[in-house]
Amino acid sequence: MISRMRHAGRRFLRDERGGMAVFLAAGIVVLSAAVGLGVDTIRGYLVQSRLAAALDAAGLAGARVMYSDTRDDDIRMFFDANFPPGFMGATIDGPNFTVDAASEVLSIDASATIETSFMRILGFQTLTVSANSEITRQTELLELVLAIDMSGSMGNSVSGGGTRIAAARDAAQELVNILFGQDETKALLKIGIVPWNGKVNITLNGTTFDSTQTVPEAVDPYVHPILGGAARNEVQIINNSPVPLLSAPPADWPGCVFARYIHDFVDNDGDLSVGPVSVGDKDWPAWELVQPTGLEGGEPISPGRCAMAVDNHECTRCLSHGITPLQNVKTDTLNAIAELQSPTGTTNIPEGLAWAWRVLVPQAPFTQAEVDPPGRRTQAIVLLTDGENYGGSGDGYKTIFGYGSSAQGPVDGPGMNKRLEDVAAAIKAQGILIYTIQFAFSSGDLATLMKNVASGPDAPFYHYAPDKATLTQVFKEVANDLSELRVSK
Q1: For 421-444, what is each residue's pLDDT tens digit?
Q2: How far is CA 24 from CA 3, 16, 27, 32, in A?
Q3: How many Å apart are CA 370 and CA 133, to the nearest integer?
Q4: Rounded to whole angstroms, how far apart are CA atoms 393 and 304?
Q5: Can you name the residues that pair with 284 across neighbouring β-strands?
């Protein structure tokens, strides 16, 4: 028996039948592990790729509203929209984010864990991947003009406390602080300010007019657009403004001028151009000044008769605030905004927008904008008003569009609303962005008008702000929209 067992054993050892099956079984185990590793690795790669894209989207959304109360919610919302809960069975840790306000950098990261399908054979139950993103806010040459309504109604109270003009000051300063960040100056940021009511004071803010320093400047021959007569060859340059005038101002001139427009149904509107221009049958090498205290036959004009005056008298108050040209000093900009006090007069939106345009472009009379900057440039106007166009005595259009609410629509021709839309169209044709803010006045007609004036009928270009808190949020949104963003890593 022992001999037979030994013989059977030797025969078993020599028998090669079924050996391949053993090797095949071992190979299948190795192959399955390799395929499983590949499948789980691909799943991990897909999850990580989707995670990185979601972080970039969330980071850009958060950086765009870096100083907004909704920033954190926006980050999470955009992350969830781009990495839906349960995507490929992943469990998410994050997004986690930090904000460096001084450097204007938002850092964001997250990780995702998935259960493995085949790698379990090798003892790996889960696979974790991670991603991160860093967003840097930057301003690539931004030139911006704030055109702030200073009509009398801006002195009214507003929901949230204080006056409308106080709320506008605070909100505008918030915008300036966001754009400048921690810097006192920025080489690639310039901001100008144009206060307006029924007219615009075209002197430089913070300066004093001295009639003794007015000097003539030679120009090509022109015919006076209002008086006609023989050709002239000079205009007047005052000591505290680059804006040329058709005649020398008296010593008590407060600083306002009329719009370059004559209501004669001829296409001769100089307001649709920035600087000196000849259009239609009229020459506009300069602006017509508004005379100070109205006199008629040597006697003061009563308020009730101002609208009928023929001598271009100042019948409503010219603002004491002049124009702040484009400049890049944070403190100077904040101080100019802080000086916007004591609103008065009527509402002439087209004049405010037209002078903001002149301040913004690198063409006389204002030339602070870059002529041909390298790289990309954004130019924009933020136009805030709390009321509808309202023709008044001594306004920029000499009441030719009607007095009071009649100025809004056709009165013997196009109304002030049409003038505003025409000016806005000329501005937008140059690639300039217009942001309009309708503040504390809920008129549907005004909303329609301001949407037409804006670069778009909805946010971020048109906003209605019924109260102080909303106005501050609107200015933050505009500032965030004007900031350039880039993924730094």
Answers
A1: 999 999 999 999 999 999 999 999
A2: 34, 14, 5, 12
A3: 34
A4: 9
A5: 277
